[in-house]
Amino acid sequence: MSGPFLKQVFNKDKTFRPKRKFEPGTQRFELHKRAQASLNAGLDLRLAVQLPPGEDLHDWVAVHVVDFFNRINLIYGTISDGCTEQSCPVMSGGPKYEYRWQDEHKFRKPTALSAPRYMDLLMDWVEAQINDEEVFPTSVGTPFPKNFLQTVRKILSRLFRVFVHVYIHHFDRIAQMGSEAHVNTCYKHFYYFVREFGLIDAKELEPLKEMTTRMCH
Fold first, then answer.
1. CA–CA gap between residue 159 and residue 144 (Å, rounded)
2. How far apart are CA 160 and CA 154, in angstroms?
3. CA distance 5 to 52
4. Three-class secondary structure of residue 98 per DSSP
5. d(Cα 200, Cα 188) in Å, to the nearest integer?
6. 178: in domain
7. Where on this chain does Zn(2+) bind (predicted)?
8. pLDDT value at residue 158
9. Residue 216 in marked binding region
């Protein structure tokens, strides 16, 4: 997954935000290493996302959610200077899809925002979820909350919207930077994972349906 392109793109002065890391020696760190090794070995992504025998589904999902957050964050970070209040006054995915922001704090009703504002709130919200010990426990033996997969579905649905916006409104920038293959691989990995475990509703996937059919089937 890495190469000269990644160094060129991701070693910018501004790192988009800190990565959530797994503590060495923990079960999740080992799972993360195993998932990375599968990708680096060029294993078919459809197989790479499958739950390894004997492993806990929640642990496997947690590792991937954190990894997808880090990757999608970086992808958005590479085009963020071209995603402005002027260029993207609405958080959309083409003329048919507009995304409105809602949370438990300031935006209690779905609110139309510019894409960069929406992205900021989205990334802050996901980061808060994955750094919350009660939602994503890191201590060995601490059980996941009962609503863990429900929270994960919301996180992944929102992260998917980043792909929608980037592919539909900023793909020329991705291509110009030579990062098309990397972004496509990240997308395929994400898509196969959410389909394997039924973590995103089909209607959410609709905006990229044609592209996904060409790329993933």
1. 21
2. 10
3. 31
4. strand
5. 14
6. yes
7. 83, 88, 165, 170
8. 96
9. no
Kind and range of the H or E run holding 112: strand 111-112
Question: Mind listing the pLDDT tens digit for each residue in 15-39?
Answer: 444 455 555 555 566 666 666 665 5
Give strand pairing partners of 100: 112
58 is in an annotated binding site: no
Q: Whole-angstrom Cα distance, residue 70 to residue 68? A: 5
Query: What secondary structure letter does DSSP report for 56?
Result: -
Whether residue 6 is contained in a domain is answered as no
The count of structural domains within the chain is 1
- Beta-carbon contacts of 163 under 8 Å, excluding residues fewer than 6 positions away, are 72, 75, 187, 190, 208
Helix, strand, or coil (residue 60): helix
Instruction: Please indicate if the annotation marks 165 as binding a ligand.
Output: yes
| pLDDT tops 90 at residue 2 | no
What is the predicted pLDDT for the residue at 36? 66
Q: Which residues contact 134 (CB under 8 A, 6 or more apart)?
A: 145
Distance CA 93, CA 2 (A): 28
pLDDT at 28: 61
Here the tokens at position 138 are 């890191």
**Tell me, what CATH number does 122's domain have?**
1.20.140.30
Instruction: Please name the residue that has the structure tokens 């954190």.
Output: 66
Q: What's the pLDDT at 61?
A: 95
